[in-house]
């Protein structure tokens, strides 16, 4: 996008608002849930900059203790919308994990990248520094190693399982996996009850800062510019309050652009820490927010795929193919007994037409739909061949497994 187009986009975003006449939101006071993570930044900014009020809304943010608590409140209507794990919304929609089916909707993406797999310093002291050496240690270890993710159908579980399996470690049989709220992972690992975890920032950076663990792999190294958190709601909310849904997307799109262009990252990090009540130094939050990484083993680098909130609208467009990929992993790991109609499910959840309506109104670029993805192991995923992809893995569940 050239400078002239950028300026036009910025002006359109600044000028646009559905706050008058017949376009006014049907429901103006909203409660939106979030987890205390760096990638809740767009929600914080939407309220801090008054963008909710610009679009006729009055948002109250609700800090939640766990993803399961957030899910329950969202399903029960105690939350109008939420900062959510992408694939958690798919699991909730499908009724996985002893849940009833609850028709859900993804309004837009909130961030790309910015998660990591952290391993304990005890493993480091045993010679483990990456997936290859972890495989050797797993084979010879007398006890089964335990790893945490944040939610059974969440993104962190999918990154962890994929990474382990790519190194010939079966996450269903070779190790134990447990669900732990992200803010508690480091302290549990420090007590010796976890050998590693996959979670969001700043908890990976804090584990290094406290000399508890090291970064074995970032999520963006697994999948460059992967989708992560989304703005989600119940499908019934969209049906009942379509103008409110448009206004909410509008406010969060503008906030996302501000999050990417915030000049003073440490001030921005301090704001997020204060408003989200995140227990971590601002310097750690700012470093990984801008892609300034260290892994706790002596390596320091500027990551090519840092945490992104807008990226000229690339982050926010809810690609159907991304949802299809998560569904292939659900089937791979036995969370689904039968293969779904991959694309049909994704189209039920990802509100692409609604998002595009708002994006066009605001002058935000709409990217070409993604159809294929190649992850770090070199295996190509094509959404048109989802069944062949989900069935080709040698490490996978042969029947439904409780994860």
Q: Could you walk me through the main structural features you see in this protein, from its secondary elements to its overall organization?
A:
With 403 residues, the protein is of the alpha/beta class. The chain has two domains: 3-112 and 227-294 and 304-380, D-Maltodextrin-Binding Protein, domain 2 (3-Layer(aba) Sandwich); 115-225, Periplasmic binding protein-like II (D-Maltodextrin-Binding Protein, domain 2). 43% of the residues lie in helices and 16% in strands. The chain contains 19 helices and 14 strands. It has helices spanning 3-15, 41-48, 51-54, 67-76, 86-94, 121-125, 131-140, 155-166, 185-190, 203-209, 219-222, 235-240, 242-261, 265-276, 282-289, 320-332, 342-349, 352-362, 386-392, and strands spanning 29-34, 58-63, 81-85, 104-109, 115-120, 146-149, 176-179, 196-200, 213-218, 229-234, 292-294, 300-302, 372-374, 380-382. It has a five-stranded mixed beta sheet with strand order 2-1-3-10-4, sandwiched between helices. Strands 7-6-8-5-9 form a five-stranded mixed beta sheet, sandwiched between helices. Helix 8 (155-166) links the parallel strand 6 and strand 7 (176-179). It is globular.
